[in-house]
Please model this.
Amino acid sequence: MPFFGFKGGIHPQYNKSATSGCAVERLAVKAGDIVSIPLSQHIGAPAKAVVTKGQQVKKGELIAEAAGFISSPVHSSVTGKVLGIASVIHPMAGRVEGISIEAECDDEDFVPAPDTETFQKAVQAAGITGLGGASFPSHVKLSPPKEVDTLLINGAECEPYLTCDHRMMIERSLDIVKGAVLIQKNLKIKNLIIAIEKNKPASIALFRKMEKEYGFELIPLDVKYPQGGEKQLIKACTDRIVPEGKLPLEVGVIVHNVGTAAAVYDAVEHKKPLFERVVTVTGAVRNPKNLLVPIGTPISRLIEECGGFIGVPRKIVMGGPMMGLAVSSMETPVIKGTSGILVYRQEDLPDLKQTPCIRCGRCVDACPMALVPSAMDRYVVREMYEALEEYHVMNCIECGCCTYVCPARRTLASGFRTSKRHILRMIKEREANNA
Ligand code: SF4
Ligand code: SF4
Model:
């Protein structure tokens, strides 16, 4: 298939060299380490705790069950004792209910997930959620209510600094392919595409060798941010456009991240629950690394493992610099959707003093969703949410391209993110009034 590309986007400094050559290292658990595992690890209903304070648990053991179809179970990431079920820090939601566990040893074994009747149930039982950041329960995506003809495996990793997917593609390429083929076969999907940005030639070479044997098509992607956005990736690889407010299913496509494909393989072939993930730790730390981390581990432990800070940290971001979120506490735990920890010092941060819009139009050219950020910004400032809705702000994917190119340093994307929350509440109220 030809490469169709997508409109807009930017070419930021990628800054991946500090960790792109760093093989994944397992973060060893020490007796006395405490993990805090939020019960909201995913989009949908939080899981319900099934353990009690003081209970002994093993790594991989179920500690919270799914609370409905759009929900995913949670498993212990260490062997140890439950300290309590209480409010814990969540990187996106402030504080949520969670389970704290004190590790007693560095257990290499895990409790396998239970036998299930179907592929989808095996994925749900292992607590698999999207590892690319959105954290949607994977079994839901794998139960499409309509026909899908294309499975797209996302190896773009277009966010600067992050290299966790790249290392997965180097070190677990066969497992990713096998996971993808498992999904393809179980869902009877005709086309399997694995898409990787061209700035990862070593990954591309590995997958190229397996292309014929496993019957997929490898698409090397032009390097442009946000190439890994679902809608941008679908447009670039299939020339299909997902309609506003709709899911990729609408155009017959399912997208899964490379890490999720490997997790599906682990769940089906090894009954391994999702209790750990690879996280890139980079920026102003002494030894940047890619670490395999138990879910619930606090950021402070990752920083310690990387030799501590260089200089004085000013801002710590969970995720990449474009779409990641700043955290306010070093005790914030790694969750299933955490791809990176990025540390900035004051001198690494740009001057963010805003000035009035000069109507240069750069944000309009950069927007990959064909929105008009400069006009939307005027409504954000005035808190005019109905007008923002008319300007299709709900279609904003919060990629940050507009903010990146703005010479007036308008904090465009963060304004749209906050406004979307207001509008969602407005829509819910409207629906309740009309019910
Ligand atoms: S953050 Fe939203 S408005 Fe800005 S470029 Fe991205 S999609 Fe467009
Ligand atoms: S890039 Fe900034 S200054 Fe230029 S039109 Fe957009 S908001 Fe205005």
Q: What stands out?
A: The chain has 14 helices and 17 strands. The radius of gyration is 21 Å. The chain has a mean pLDDT of 95. The CA atoms of residues 208 and 218 lie 7 Å apart.
